[in-house]
Amino acid sequence: MNINDGGRRRFEDNEHTLRIYPGTISEGTIYCPIPARKNSTAAEVIDSLINRLHLDKTKCYVLAEVKEFGGEEWILNPTDCPVQRMMLWPRMALENRLSGEDYRFLLREKNLDGSIHYGSLQSWLRVTEERRRMMERGFLPQPQQKDFDDLCSLPDLNEKTLLENLRNRFKHEKIYTYVGSILIVINPFKFLPIYNPKYVKMYDNHQLGKLEPHIYAVADVAYHAMLQRKKNQCIVISGESGSGKTQSTNFLIHHLTALSQKGFASGVEQIILGAGPVLEAFGNAKTAHNNNSSRFGKFIQVNYQETGTVLGAYVEKYLLEKSRLVYQEHNERNYHVFYYLLAGASEEERLAFHLKQPEEYHYLNQITKKPLRQSWDDYCYDSEPDCFSVEGEDLRHDFERLQLAMEMVGFLPKTRRQIFSLLSAILHLGNICYKKKTYRDDSIDICNPEVLPIVSELLE
Predict the structure, then answer these.
(1) To bridge 358 with a disulfide, which of 70, 111, 309, 364 should be the other Cys (CB 3.0-4.6 Å)?
(2) Was 114 annotated as part of a binding site?
């Protein structure tokens, strides 16, 4: 994926290059570069592809966004804008670096019934089901069971056998294990290719426990139980910091909306997942154990019609760790958005919001005391790490990504400007110093009154 000026310039309506991978649709073509603008639709990109690759115009094609190649897949609607979705990708994906974060656009063929053609998927599912039936009837030997996919099936259940079973499964990249209807997930801290459309179809309308444990199975059971019993269903995700709660939530939302929309990314799903960069910026922070820890709880309510189609959604945030604004523990940071703003703001914004370097703010410099930098460009990433930086982080790109995400979610330019002004005011408020008035115990003076006009201007 190539973008003009390396993705560092503020996102404007200039021309970008989309790399589209046609796969088996066009043998011998690894990818096809297609020029597009911010408002170019998926339908326009597909028309360009058909002409460039001389494809059969009688067939119907769709564009698929694959996050971490071989993993999650979203089918774009004809009116979706691929460039806007591309700009929400992480910096590593935009710069074409070889990493675990491999994001691509694929060209897919659409069947007459509206489903997506995935080649040999149906035959693969048919063979897998036939092998299972043969084993049940005794015609094929049962595989030697070295681990149990349900801890309730352990012949000897104690702490040692439980942990050993989880460890053995984890070594074979089986991160999911059941405890009855409860799903245990062990964060692999790497991508596993078990979230593509093959798995969406495989777990569709299957009883829990019939197939290998998977988060899609939990989502599928809740979805069909809701339709059959006509009652609300609830899925609770809990765990320690860094255990993968946020990513698991994304997988659940993706599968629930895929069941409803037959693979097409609905507007509801796009808003929920597209709001991710906004929620992360204002609610996530670096902690001692996790560089991107969510410091708030989240309740997502997805509403359906009786037919099973997504009608709308509501996201409620609660228990935000507000104390982090004024104090952070050792080797921890304040919320991401402050660092994004200080690193990514333009010169005009720096003057308008009276922005300084992070070391000059009491709310950001409580842990690490280092010589002041003249600018963010002066920072040497090979030097001793401090509380202002995270390895592999590009704050300027993250600020651009945040701006675009806020625009897509619906924040107007005036509202965004007011929010950034408020953020700067919070930082300046932290710099106000106080002292007791002489001969009076019930009142105080401000030591640095020059800060007050700045705060007053920012808060209007």
Answers:
(1) 364
(2) no
